[in-house]
Write a structure and sequence with these properties.
The protein contains 6 helices and 5 strands, in the order αββααααβββα. This is PAS domain-containing protein.
């Protein structure tokens, strides 16, 4: 093995380690929506090992995900090579993971923002897409609490003006 090959192998190893330990869910899907990559975040929150989900349909693993809706989200990613986004305001979560954060313990499930991105192969085709799943439970809980307080302040003002 040449020094260049060894360096490439070592670099690949630390990049794979980073992929497994980053605090973001990373899932790679092919055009049939079969799971090709399932990182440590996904394993930790789903309770499913990568070996259990690899080559299985996302819809088999998560039957609550509507196939037509999800395919429409993925279509421009595969065909136009553009990113697509899902925010917690549109849909609180794609993967129904329990909330594990003590600060936002009032929320039952993890709120998620998701980015879909094309993965262009060496031949220039997009045969796979990546999903990056971000835990935004803290942000969602804060916004919901803020909105609730705003409603309460408005109601209190209206009550005071009616009593005056």
């Amino acid at each position: 093995m040449t020094d260049t090959n060894l360096e490439d192998l070592l670099e690949f190893h630390w990049m794979m380690d980073m992929l497994q330990t980053v605090d973001v869910g990373i899932v790679v899907l092919n055009r049939a929506y079969e799971v090709k990559v399932w990182n440590g975040f996904m394993e930790s929150h789903s309770g499913m090992l990568p070996s259990e989900v690899r080559d299985k349909s996302l819809f088999e693993l998560y039957p609550n995900i509507q196939r037509e809706w999800f395919a429409q989200k993925c279509k421009p990613v595969f065909e136009l090579r553009t990113r697509a986004f899902m925010t917690w305001e549109q849909r609180p979560y794609l993967f129904k993971f329990p909330n594990y954060r003590p600060i936002t313990g009032g929320e039952d499930y993890m709120y998620q923002n998701i980015t879909l991105a094309p993965l262009v192969s060496a031949t220039g085709t997009v045969d796979n897409i990546s999903m990056m799943i971000y835990d935004v439970t803290d942000v969602a809980a804060s916004k919901k609490q803020h909105e609730s307080l705003q409603v309460k302040v408005t109601e209190d003002r209206e009550r005071r003006s009616q009593n005056a």
